[in-house]
Amino acid sequence: MILILTHDKDAHALEVERRLQARGKPFARISPRDVARGGWLSARTSDDARDTLDLTLATSAGIVRARDIESVWLRRLEAIENDPLATETWSQYATVEWAYALNGLYDAMNARWLPGRPHDILGADGKLTQLARARRAGFRIPDTLLTSNVEEVFAFHETHRGRIISKLPSSTLLEQRGQTFVRFTHRVTRSDLGYLASTLRRAPCLFQEQIEKKTELRVTVVGDRVFSASIDTARNRQCLVDSRRLDTEHTPHHPFPLDAAVNAKIVDIVRGSGLTYATLDFIVRPDDELVFLELNPAGQYLWIEQLTGLPISEAICDYLVGDVPAQQE
């Protein structure tokens, strides 16, 4: 059985489930948040047990036992929320205990994981670590500053003649009352500098030189397979700095095959991060040099597949069922 960990409205999961069903492969989808809110878990180990771990996860969607699971797709690493009617102290206690229990059980499960177990995903999320790994692989990276010191930002702004951007040091999503908030990458203007002191006192921020672009690449890695697409953000002022602002109707997307040596470097970055899946963002400079921007362990890919025809969902199905393609895409 294939276990998919995500919420019940996840379009990516629905697409892969449709394909698994067509292949006749059994699967189950469970939301870790639902296990904590209305379901239950049970795990038992003993010296005389036949299995090293007898684990059961249950929600209204059904019951799954660890002995039946051959692979796990951790599609969404959801924050655990507990009883909203409990006191703040009890709610915090229960949330922490659920997180420890679930993560411990995930670590003990003997299965193929995509993109990895929770600790693998969290460990791969730091931007500085990603940049260092990409540099060692031979890719150019932007000049980068992570700081909580506003004077260093002023100097960095001056060094790059005002052409710098800011982003979060991780892929943190803020979830409140059922809504998810994300911070886009921003161009740092001179007027922004006046507000930075109060912001940086609360948390550090990451700043980078703004790279001139010919086009932008979204690269999706599934196991050893690499799917690369160009996103012509240079034609759309709205997404010049952050491609997540793109208007897909007016932003051309095309398959962008990379040579085997580049693909091998990209796979090495993902493997070196402890992952079996990731999306990576690159800029192609006017001189055609690739510049690595960042890696997302749970990045979205479905819009790329729909616009370019790249068979990413099929590759995910292949990985989950254990099929190895004859050659890389």
Identify low-pLDDT runs.
173-182
How would you write the strand order of the largest sheet? 16-15-14-17-18
| CATH architectural category of the largest domain | 3-Layer(aba) Sandwich
Q: Which structural class do you get from the secondary structure elements? A: alpha+beta
Q: What is the highest CATH level, the class of the largest domain?
A: Alpha Beta
- Helix residue percentage: 25-40%
Structural account:
The structure is a single chain. By secondary structure, this protein is an alpha+beta fold. It has three domains: 2-113, Rossmann fold; 143-209, ATP-grasp fold, A domain (Dna Ligase, domain 1, 2-Layer Sandwich), CATH 3.30.1490.20; 215-321, ATP-grasp fold, B domain (D-amino Acid Aminotransferase, Chain A, domain 1). It is 33% helix and 26% strand. It has eleven helices and 18 strands. It has helices at 11-23, 32-37, 88-108, 118-123, 127-137, 150-159, 190-193, 196-202, 260-272, 302-308, 312-321, and strands spanning 2-5, 27-30, 40-44, 54-59, 62-65, 71-74, 112-114, 144-147, 164-167, 174-176, 179-181, 186-187, 205-209, 215-222, 225-231, 253-255, 277-284, 290-296. Helix 1 (11-23) packs across helix 11 (312-321) and helix 5 (127-137) packs antiparallel against helix 9 (260-272). Residues 173-182 have low confidence and may be disordered.
